[in-house]
Amino acid sequence: MTGSPTTAAVPPGARTDRRALLSWALWDWGSAAFNAVVTTFVFSTYLASRAFVDPALVAAEDGSAGAAAAVERALAHNAAVVSAALTVAGVVVALVAPAVGRLADTSGHRRRSVLIATIGVALSIACMVFVAPSQPFLVLGAALIGIGTVAYEIACVGYNAMLGQVAPGPRTGRASALGWAAGYFGGIVLLVVLLVLCIQDFGVPGAAGLLQLPATVATGQWDVRVAIGIAAVWLVVSSVPLFLVVPEAPADPSRRGTLWAAYADLGRDVAALWRERRNVLAFLVASAVFRDGVGAVFTFGGIIAAQVFGFTASGVILFAIAANVVAGVSTALSGRFDDRFGSRAVIVVSLVGLVVCGSAVLAAGSAQSAFWVLGLLLSVFVGPVQASSRAWLVKLATPGREGELFGLYATTGRAATFIAPALFGVAVSIGGSTRYGILGIVVVLVVGLVLMAFVRTDARARP
Question: At what angle are helices 18-30 and 222-245 packed, to 10 degrees?
Answer without folding.
Answer: 160
